[in-house]
Amino acid sequence: MRKILTPGPVAIPDFVWEAIQQPVIPHRSVVFEEIYSQLLNSLRYFFQTKGEVISMIASGSGGVESAMYSLFLPGEKVLVVDTGKFSNRWVQYAETTGLDVSELSYEWGSVPKTEDILIKLEKETPKGIILTHCETSTGALLDLEEIAFAVKERVPNCLVVVDAITSVGAVPFYFDDWQLDCAICTSQKSLMNPAGLSVFAMSELAIRKLRATFSGDYQNLKSYLTFAQQHNYPFTPPVNLLFGVKAALAWFQQQKLPNVWNQTHQTAQYFRSEIQQLGAKLLAKSPSDSLTAFYFEQGDHQIIKQKLAEEYQIEISGGQGPYKGKLLRVNHMGETGIVDMQEVLSALKSILK
Amino acid sequence: MRKILTPGPVAIPDFVWEAIQQPVIPHRSVVFEEIYSQLLNSLRYFFQTKGEVISMIASGSGGVESAMYSLFLPGEKVLVVDTGKFSNRWVQYAETTGLDVSELSYEWGSVPKTEDILIKLEKETPKGIILTHCETSTGALLDLEEIAFAVKERVPNCLVVVDAITSVGAVPFYFDDWQLDCAICTSQKSLMNPAGLSVFAMSELAIRKLRATFSGDYQNLKSYLTFAQQHNYPFTPPVNLLFGVKAALAWFQQQKLPNVWNQTHQTAQYFRSEIQQLGAKLLAKSPSDSLTAFYFEQGDHQIIKQKLAEEYQIEISGGQGPYKGKLLRVNHMGETGIVDMQEVLSALKSILK
User: Fold this and answer.
1) Pairing assessment for the beta strands B3-4 and B52-57 based on DSSP bridges
2) Is there a contact between A23 and B8 if contact means CB atoms under 8 Å apart?
3) In this complex, do A213 and B96 lie within 8 Å of one another by their Cβ atoms?
4) pLDDT (tens digit per residue) in A94-124
5) ipTM of the shown complex
6) What is the number of helices (H) and of strands (E) in chain B?
């Protein structure tokens, strides 16, 4: 049996598969609305919010871009913090859609300093800031609580929009307490489902700022929100995937979030310590517990990855962008535990011998 | 066991479920590329094209809107034919995104006359025409071959963009022979899969017209095409859904398209004849074989639909927009056959008694 340790897609547990396979139901029905209503309530727990939550058919990038499209109009100033492949994508998306982009760039593996953001905010008052909580290409985690607090203190109306794709469900995340305005996550990460669904939490401030357009505008979260308030969907929903996500959200409620975060933390801490004993270095100065990006000063990362897959049936990820072929990335999200880490570490040890 | 006879989502056969449940594989891998390459080849057969095909995570509306976004720039003239709920959505999308919209509207249940389109094309030379082959809200099928031929004869560079969501795989469809430029379909219709994937065929002319933007632009089909040519994906692909769609496409190849079209035609013809015997009228003047939209001059459609669901465990769809509560719609796509029609007809007969 292949072991999937890529930081998304994450291995799908049996209980999720069982849920997904339930017979499809028509979505314009009371039964669907009851199920979706329960899902949305569990999603509130997942994001730690009492506010509005929605879902849409989209991969993570589609989700973040839809949030940016829905919340900002061309010409509006947004501050985008760029620390790697995905956060850089949000810079490019903002530029492409005609936003007035103020960029704060760091080298890969770094996280933004709160004081740098505050200096920016002395000179400009953006309509929003786009933060990537955990940058999946580097495994670095920024201090979202501190940054969001600083932003809100300086510019209370600045929307704090968070790519939480590889953070929520894996590390502490408190949407309401941290005064976030929009957070985006996706099904194939800590939610342990096939890719295809983006989920969102939205503050009152964000909702008031949603772009007004016609109801069939696929990218506009306003339609999803209007329908979600009736526990329904503006387009054909991915019914079976919703069954799976609902089961994963119930798992988080049963386990309790702090226990899951703790389990992920133990797994990550164990892996970080052991992999460094094997001579690896971590790319992230402030590593997230959701995944570890590491490299060896010597050795061909492509070959290591390939041997893990072919000889040990363990799938991990390589580097992206400037780190293509120069990095390895291992997942700690979902049900992944220390036993899985021991397995990949033992295989790595044999390969490196 | 519930019987799903909604014209999307369509019932999912066991062989599709079995395919979907295969363990997820990392998408940056040779194994994924082999599978996706096979899928794309089967997709060429499905659309009857030797040209380029792609897929993206999106429901059908997301797919059509992405095609329009990718092919036309703000200010460009497009002719949009509006005959019901979905084709009207493309009018609204075109207006929202700043296209110079020329609209040709018909009442629900009608199909466009080729001469009306030709009259339009005498006065204007649009960059594209948006046609909804089968309008799912009315069950009407337009003569795509004739219209596409007329358009191409008059304005050879006019892109013929086709919402083929409830047509391809159910009724004859020849992408290359009919000189189409872009056709969009989605996984939960004749492909008998969960919702979540849009698939596209694209002509050389369409490819040359694709919007140039950065690779992470989620809505731009150019990225999907560039990656598909390497048998890969610009974003995280819905791996398990691709397994399911690949299995459905293989089914079409085994059955042979003309046999599937014929089977769907027999099913539709039988249902249309029998339902009229029960006193129903068809909404579409030119009915598609993919679904039938019908109504009774007397009787509460909402109650009929509800009784079918509650007393007979048969799910069909109601009307949309102005026909909400005034219409019923039954699917003939996928593996649906005459036996299923007999079952729903017999239940309808008992309810109407």
Assistant:
1) unpaired
2) no
3) yes
4) 999 999 999 999 999 999 999 999 999 999 9
5) 0.90
6) 12, 15
